[in-house]
């Protein structure tokens, strides 16, 4: 493409280090779409004769059909998807193909293609998150009143409901979706027409190409247009945050599936066995989600470090922007699908959860709250009295509500028979009806609101 200036061709090493076609062929659909928008505009503006523009557009359609049928050929000499397509176009329609690259550069071309690709990846992540939310809401609705221990420091803290626990992940997924939506809104400006870096002297219509490609409008600074990769970083940041959430959910399933917990039976379809231990059913999908989250964060780090020292405008380092984004997007899609399947098909062992909630004095706070409410004792003092009761129960190896009333009264005479009603795990969760609390009635409200937000009946 630049033979005019060069006396010799590239060395084998140059060819290999320079080739991005092995990975950027993934951009072929975007590249064809952007070229069609560009040549349509060139024709409309009279920069290229309308009949030539039509010939080029038809040729691009033919190249696309070939790619669709046979895949994109990988010729390192053609470096990237842009030159691969242009060269095939020239083979099909002859020298008129050379008019396509009028008033553009690969710099604005790749910036445009990549934005289009990332925009699709955002839409795919949003669809995956919506599916996860639907699964969470369905299971939360089933288990709005199923009691389990809530933890802090992974120590039994207070009883909660499983529905409440699952809805916590619904909220995280909602924020993830809004992060992707923010990224999409911010990136949806078209760099095409910035040309190499300075703009062009041809009378192009940037608004027209932007609209043809579904952008909100053109970018406003040509140097920024070809050197900005914020949009890819925004995507990777949103993907990383989403992956961290999925990893935490995966970690919970892993813990819950362990024998001492036994809170869940994971679906066989998302588990594996052991080649030596016949009894094993391992939570591999969840472990890989946890593992993949690390790789996704690695992709973010990789691109941040690629970009951190680059002067304006385009530098070839930026060719390395695509592999981490492609990798992260592939991993994220898998992770979302795996966790959606796990949420949908896991069998929750509510009997085991309920029994575990009885352990660990999970209703101690309810005793303290009862003392505050019924005996008007300041909370700090109530906390102290309750601590003594827990100590006594622990020394006798019984639950709080199994302590005889006389022994409780020996700790504090203001305790009476009514306290026992407050000490059950059911009473404990039912009491927590503050906005966003774990009371089944409140969880049902949140589930109903979520179903409305998701457009479910
Ligand atoms: N293959 C290149 C990339 O992906 C396309 C842009 C090349 N531009 C250039 N001036 N060498 O970044």
Automatic annotation (TrEMBL):
Residues 361-430 form the Argininosuccinate lyase C-terminal domain. It is found in: Cytoplasm. GO terms for biological process: L-arginine biosynthetic process via ornithine. GO terms for molecular function: argininosuccinate lyase activity. SUPFAM superfamilies: L-aspartase-like. Keywords: Amino-acid biosynthesis, Arginine biosynthesis, Cytoplasm, Lyase. It catalyses: 2-(N(omega)-L-arginino)succinate = fumarate + L-arginine. Residues 4-298 form the Fumarate lyase N-terminal domain. The keyword NADP does not apply. Its EC number is 4.3.2.1. The gene is argH. One of its GO terms (cellular component) is cytosol. Its main location: cytoplasm. NCBIfam families: argH (TIGR00838). Pathway: Amino-acid biosynthesis; L-arginine biosynthesis; L-arginine from L-ornithine and carbamoyl phosphate: step 3/3. This is Argininosuccinate lyase. InterPro entries: Arg_succ_lyase_C (IPR029419), Argininosuccinate_lyase (IPR009049), Fumarase/histidase_N (IPR024083), Fumarate_lyase_CS (IPR020557), Fumarate_lyase_fam (IPR000362), Fumarate_lyase_N (IPR022761), L-Aspartase-like (IPR008948). Pfam families: ASL_C2, Lyase_1. It is an enzyme of class 4 (lyase). Belongs to the lyase 1 family. Argininosuccinate lyase subfamily. The lineage of its organism: Bacteria, Pseudomonadati, Pseudomonadota, Alphaproteobacteria, Sphingomonadales.
């Amino acid at each position: 493409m630049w033979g005019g200036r060069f006396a010799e061709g590239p060395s084998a090493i140059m060819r290999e280090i320079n080739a991005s076609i092995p990975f950027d062929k993934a951009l072929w659909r975007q590249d064809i779409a952007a070229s069609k928008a560009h040549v349509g505009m060139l024709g409309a503006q009279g920069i290229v004769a309308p009949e030539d523009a039509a010939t080029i557009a038809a040729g691009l359609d033919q190249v696309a059909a070939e790619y669709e049928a046979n895949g994109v050929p990988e010729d390192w000499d053609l470096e990237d998807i842009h030159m691969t397509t242009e060269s095939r176009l020239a083979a099909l329609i002859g020298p008129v193909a050379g008019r396509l690259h009028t008033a553009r550069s690969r710099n604005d071309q790749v910036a445009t293609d990549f934005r289009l690709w990332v925009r699709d990846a955002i839409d795919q992540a949003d669809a995956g998150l919506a599916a996860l939310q639907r699964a969470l809401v369905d299971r939360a609705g089933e288990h709005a009143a199923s009691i389990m221990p809530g933890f802090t420091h992974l120590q039994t803290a207070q009883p909660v409901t499983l529905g409440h626990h699952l809805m916590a992940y619904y909220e995280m997924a909602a924020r993830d979706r809004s992060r992707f939506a923010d990224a999409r809104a911010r990136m949806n400006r078209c760099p095409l027409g910035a040309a190499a870096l300075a703009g062009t002297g041809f009378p192009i219509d940037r608004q027209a190409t932007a609209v043809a490609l579904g952008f909100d409008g053109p970018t406003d600074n040509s140097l920024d247009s070809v050197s900005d990769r914020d949009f890819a970083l925004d995507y990777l940041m949103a993907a990383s945050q989403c992956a961290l959430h999925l990893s935490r959910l995966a970690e919970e399933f892993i813990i819950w599936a362990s024998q001492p917990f036994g809170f869940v039976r994971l679906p066989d379809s998302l588990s594996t066995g052991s080649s030596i231990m016949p009894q094993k059913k391992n939570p591999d999908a969840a472990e890989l989600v946890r593992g993949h989250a690390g790789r996704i964060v690695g992709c973010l780090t990789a691109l941040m470090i690629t970009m951190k020292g680059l002067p304006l405008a385009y530098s070839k380092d930026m060719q390395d922007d695509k592999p981490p984004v492609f990798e992260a997007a592939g991993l994220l899609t898998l992770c979302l699908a795996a966790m959606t399947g796990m949420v949908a098909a896991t069998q929750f062992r509510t009997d085991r959860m309920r029994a575990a909630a009885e352990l660990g004095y999970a209703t101690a706070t309810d005793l303290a709250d009862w003392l505050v409410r019924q005996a008007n004792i300041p909370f700090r003092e109530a906390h102290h009295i309750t601590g003594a009761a827990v100590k006594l129960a622990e020394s006798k190896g019984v639950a709080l509500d199994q302590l005889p009333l006389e022994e409780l009264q020996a700790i504090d005479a203001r305790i009476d028979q009514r306290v026992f009603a407050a000490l059950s795990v059911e009473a404990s969760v039912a009491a927590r009806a503050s906005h966003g609390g774990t009371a089944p009635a409140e969880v049902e409200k949140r589930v109903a609101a979520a179903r409305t937000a998701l457009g479910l009946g």
